[in-house]
Write a structure and sequence with these properties.
The complex is a heterotrimer of chains A (about 220), B (about 140) and C (about 300). By secondary structure, chain A is α/β, with parallel strands linked by helices. Helix content of chain A is about 30%, strand content about 25%. In chain B, helix 1 packs across helix 4 (about 110-130). The chains are: A alpha/beta (about 220), B alpha/beta (about 140), C alpha/beta (about 300). The interface of A and B includes residues 40, 43, 51, 53 and 54 of A.
């Protein structure tokens, strides 16, 4: 999923300063699963923001709504009838959702309430960690199902570097060394032979270095 | 001018604190009438949002009273409640209305005296802190 | 002989090589480079010029290399993958070679988190093994990494680094093998204090025939004090310092610790010379360049062979 964390309240207060009525818009997808921008987080932020304003003797009308998916025009259309009632939209979706709303309602200010972090997986309740860098040319098949692009601090394709100690990365003892994980998996799979092949320099065009990316599926076009 | 009388909302677990409060009443141990008790099946049922809404709607302090850690009828509901109270406390600090307006406390069903004592102390603490700044601001915003 | 590198000549002639190291200054003072390198003129076969070591901005490696070159000392031009993409790397290599640099060392580079620009983009377009392969191809096939032809390709004596002590232990020699397969002519190791583990590493490398394909130079760093010994033992990622070494240096009287460190270093060099497959030493006298000649002298490595 795409993970996110709420922005500091102070930054959000700054966005809100010129307005008196805003739509606080959540998303039922990834940000709900990572407890950053779902229906409940919309309620908590509305409450916090409302109190923060009242404390200063000001009033901010906050209308709470949560869409099925903010990155999908079909669902973003749902607010077309009511959008004129608001001075601005405060989106709790990831950057994709914020931009879909901003792209559809061109004259309406839209602000992000969360910082979009990474594509990750849940390690346990309350902990998410980066797993995929979306580089467009997956190497997991030759690295034992552990990604060196997303999980090695130096995205080394032919690791490990000299800083791997007791399974941990030199940058932080809380970070696993991706190449230790890769090696452990290759051993478990009986495929240590894969290690001796040199993985050649990557073609980063499939990643964002080739410019903003699109997927076009002719078979699905309407 | 009348002394400030705070409104305290207490979420009380029915397996411990709620019974304790009942016992305090029947044994004649007094605790302040400021404390409005909301009976919950477990403090684990008390959501972050409930704590926030209570304060938003005018409570000056919020107490969450559950079983001792390890004694939860639902295993770890009280632990979850404790973590949420911690989160709300930090959020209240961020808002600037004081993280100490929310507190988690633990007791067993037989400790009517503990409930009375905690209720008294917490009410006194909030009385000293003064009214929830949100209420004062709301008056100004309406004016 | 593939290149004009002095280090290659010394190694190819079968001499036990000695290289040194100089970190460029955090400023524009060319004299600071000359002062440090001056201690090493005539004392080493090549001197490594570090590239933004520990992720701190310093005078560029190629510029400091040229200053050193003008002093009659052969620079080993270091290049890390952290700061440049493959375009910048290749153009720097062309420029460096055009100005007379012929020996280089390919490295990953310390993570920016450890330096003075932790907020910098951490490039890693290619990794150190891919860098070795890229330079090899530039030299041998006269092709850029992208496939186009180079007019007047460079001829570099290509080095890589190896750490015999990082984890996973089993991969240390296998990764060395990959660096050699990618085209490394010589390898310099991380500084060695744990001689037992280094011997195992070399033994394995020797058995795999790696020492036939590539010159391996063992890294040594003299310990200046008990404090430095403790620091190296506990604070440097991927470094092992046995307790008895920390005790030996820290246990000496304060004023005798430096001498004890030098004595240990000289003993280590003597021990390394006896290990099959060790083709030389790489002396990293960190901010202690002026003591390097004494160490080399006492280790019996002076005068350097003229080849």
């Amino acid at each position: 999923m795409i993970t996110a964390v709420r922005k500091p309240l102070e930054e959000i207060m700054g966005f809100a300063a010129p307005y008196s009525r805003v739509l606080l818009l959540g998303c039922n997808e990834c940000v709900t699963v990572c407890y950053a921008g779902g229906r409940k987080e919309v309620g908590i932020l509305a409450s916090a923001l409302s109190m923060a304003f009242l404390k200063e003797g000001k009033k901010l009308d906050i209308v709470e709504q949560t869409l099925e998916r903010q990155c999908d025009p079909e669902y973003v259309e749902e607010i077309a009838q009511t959008i004129d009632q608001y001075d601005a939209v405060f989106s709790m979706a990831c950057g994709c959702g914020v931009q879909t709303v901003a792209g559809r309602y061109k004259d309406k200010p839209v602000f992000p309430m969360v910082n979009t972090m990474f594509m990750g997986a849940s390690e346990r309740q309350g902990v998410w960690a980066e797993r995929c860098a979306g580089c467009g040319d997956c190497v997991l098949g030759r690295t034992g199902g552990v990604c060196p692009v997303a999980r090695c601090s130096k995205r080394i394709f032919n690791g490990p570097c000299g800083g791997s100690t007791k399974g941990k990365c030199e940058i932080d003892p809380g970070v696993d060394c991706a190449w230790q994980l890769i090696w452990d998996r290759l051993k478990a799979l009986g495929r240590t032979d894969l290690y001796s092949e040199i993985i050649p320099a990557k073609d980063w065009r499939s990643a964002k270095d080739g410019g903003p990316r699109r997927i076009v599926r002719e078979d699905l076009l309407s | 001018m009348r002394a400030f009388e705070p409104i305290i909302v207490a979420f009380a677990c029915e397996y411990c604190a709620y019974t304790a409060a009942d016992m305090a009443g029947s044994l004649g141990m007094s605790y302040p009438p400021n404390v409005k008790i909301i009976r919950v099946p477990c403090t684990g049922k008390v959501d972050t949002l409930h704590l926030m809404r209570a304060l938003q709607k005018g409570a000056d302090g919020v107490l969450v009273a559950g079983c001792y850690l390890g004694d939860c009828h639902y295993k770890n509901g009280n632990l979850r409640a404790q973590q949420r109270v911690g989160y709300v406390s930090r959020l209240l600090d961020e808002i600037g209305i004081g993280g100490e307006r929310v507190m988690m406390t633990f007791m067993s069903a037989g400790q009517g005296n503990v409930f009375a004592q905690v209720a008294n102390e917490f009410t006194e603490k909030i009385r000293n802190l003064g009214p929830n700044p949100v209420k004062l601001g709301a008056g100004k915003a309406a004016a | 002989m593939k290149t004009t590198s002095n280090l290659e000549k010394v190694l190819a002639a079968g001499h036990f090589a000695a290289t040194g190291e100089v970190g460029p200054p955090r400023g524009t003072d060319a004299e600071a480079v000359r002062k440090k390198a001056g201690h090493l003129v005539g004392k080493v076969d090549a001197v490594n010029i570090t590239d933004n070591q520990t992720a701190m901005v310093r005078m560029s490696s190629w510029a400091a290399s040229l200053i050193v070159k003008q002093m009659g000392l052969e620079p080993n031009y270091q290049m890390v993958c952290r700061d440049r993409n493959r375009l910048a790397m290749q153009s720097d290599i062309l420029g460096a070679y055009a100005l007379g640099l012929n020996t280089m060392l390919c490295l990953s580079g310390d993570h920016p988190r450890f330096g003075d620009h932790p907020m910098a983009a951490n490039v890693h377009d290619i990794d150190s093994i891919q860098l070795v392969a890229m330079v090899r191809r530039m030299c041998d096939e006269g092709l850029f990494q992208g496939g186009a032809e180079i007019s007047n390709p460079p001829k570099m004596f290509i080095g890589a680094a190896a750490n015999p002590f990082g984890d996973p232990q089993e991969l240390r020699v296998l990764r060395l093998a990959k660096k050699i397969a990618a085209g490394a002519d010589f390898v310099q190791t991380q500084c060695i204090y744990d001689m037992k583990r280094f011997k195992e590493f070399m033994h394995q490398a020797h058995d795999m025939g790696l020492t036939e394909k590539c010159y391996i130079l063992a890294g040594v760093t003299p310990l200046k004090s008990g404090g430095m010994a403790k620091y190296m033992a506990t604070k440097v990622p991927g470094m092992t310092v046995p307790d008895e070494i920390v005790k030996r240096i820290a246990g000496a009287p304060k004023e005798a610790q430096a001498e004890e460190g030098i004595k240990l270093c000289v003993e280590q060099i003597a021990e390394m010379r006896e290990i099959p497959g060790v083709a030389g030493i790489h002396l990293m006298a960190i901010e202690w360049e002026h003591r390097a000649p004494e160490i080399l002298e006492r280790a019996g490595l002076l005068p350097r062979p003229q080849v």
